Each structure stands twice: as C-alpha cells, then as structure tokens.
Amino acid sequence: MIHTEANQRTMKLSRAEYKAIVRWTEHLRPTRQCMKMLKEQFPNHSQSTLLSIFSLEYQKRTKRTISRHHAPEVIESHYQRYLSEAKAHPTAPVLLQLANEVDLSPALMARLILDRFLQDLEGGMPSKTLLNSMLKEPSLIPDLLLANNIYQCTINDCCYGPLVDCIKHAIGQEHEVLLCDKLKERNLSFLDENQLRAKGYDKTPDIILEVPVAVEGHIVHWIESKASFGDDHSHRTYLNEQFWSYWNRFGPGLVIYWYGFIGELDCQRDRGILLKDCFPTDIVTLCHASQQERAPRAPE
C-alpha cells in the first residue's frame, strides 16, 4: 500500500529547505537507523521524501568514491580483514560494520566480498549470473558465515542491493496503478505504457491522454509518474533523456514527482512541461470547457 502520510502534505520544497536536508545527510550512512535519525531531525517532511533525497545524495557520493574501493589491493585488504574478524567474532555483523567504517554501501561491500570469495571457490572470475543469484538468495552461498553477513548487509542497506531494487520497482508500479485509478475515477480516456508499446512506440510516457486536459491553465497530453524526489541532477537527466522527447512527439505534458521536488524546477510550464507532487485536483476537460462556454451569462 502507498503510505497515506505521503498524500497528506505537500512535498514540494524550496531550494533552501532541500539544501538544509542535504547538508544534514552528508555524514549519514545508508542504514535504517540513520533514516530514523533523519526523520527525527525533519519531522515535518514525509519519510518517503527524506529517504528519496538521501538515496539520491548517497548515490552521488558513491559515484565519487567507488573507484577507490574497486582497487585490487583495497578489495584484498577488505577481504582479509573480513576473514579475520568473522573468525574472531562469528556472531557479529562484521561485514556491515566494515562497510559503515569505510563509508561504503553495505550491499556494495557485500558484492565485493562475495565476488572475491567466489574467485577462490571457482578458480577465476565468477559469472554475473552466479554472483547476482547468490546476492538475491544468500542461502545459495556455500559458506554459512559469509551468507549470514551478506544477508545482514542486504537487509540493512536502504540505497543499494537486490532488496532495494525490488522495493523501488514495486513502488514505481504501485504509483503507476494509482495514476491509472485516478484517471479512471475522472472518466478520462487514456493509453498506458503497455498499450503504447503494443502500438509500436519505443519511448513513451506512462500515460497518453486520448483527449487532452488542462491543469492550472496548461494543456496536458501526457503524464509521467516518478516515485522519487525531483532534484536538480535527476530532473535535468529526465528532461534530456525523456521529457523533451515526449514533448517533441506528443506535445505538452505533466510530470508527477510523488515524493516531491525542488519548487524552483517547475519553470518549464510555458514551454510545455508541468510539475506536480500529487494527482491534480483541478483538471478541466474539453467537455467541461465546452459546457462553460455554452452556459448563459448573467445579465450585466
């Protein structure tokens, strides 16, 4: 179920509000305990919005630092340290603790260590298929102690890993279903992404309206659902890789960032891209507009 707290408050933030949250996340780790601390610091913002902002910021941090963790000598150092500490403390989550200590995502640390373990086991580089299957199902790992440590890393990481990927996919699907339900409630005729692909379209928004509507005075032909927060980097990427191509093919449209966005980014309305943090309540259909035009005016 989609959390109702996300629908009870506006999640559009000013740039100043956004920067205050970002500054506070700079030294947090991608653990559920840290997310609890973040929520306590910013109680007026939804947990979904805070998690989305942190996840985006942590991914940027990881991209800046990941190369140093992939150096062969660093991987070997992490692996030998894991072996030593796991032997000394077999019941402790040593891999999770090591990841937090060196500021690496627990799920990414788990991947590095499992890959190194499999190199010894397989006598060479393991296949991605084998590696991914064991990360998704740690019980397949022949070393029980390592399996437990991999599992601890996976369930305690809120930004990376197979569990997070599964949750993100489910949330994305859930919001697309919510969008379709809202459109049906308004009796608006539309084609969804699957129907558009069946018609031969390769790059499509989530929804094409068969009859355009007006939202806050702006014509909308298509709607894109984003179950995330819209920050500068992600919105710029979406504009260049998705939204402008939708605009070129289908005309002006609406993007819903369900977990909010930086308010200043909603600056393309006159060019044909409208941003909202919820399903719009003031939709004007062609039928309604025609009725208003035909309605008799009061005598002056």
TrEMBL record:
InterPro entries: CDIN1
GO cellular component, one term: nucleus
Pfam families: TPD
Entry keyword Nuclease: no
Keywords noted in UniProt: Cytoplasm, Nucleus
Gene Ontology annotations of biological process type: erythrocyte differentiation
Protein's cellular compartments: Cytoplasm; Nucleus
UniProt organism field: Betta splendens
Name of the featured protein: CDAN1-interacting nuclease 1
The keyword Cytoplasm is annotated on this UniProt entry: yes
Gene name in the database record: cdin1
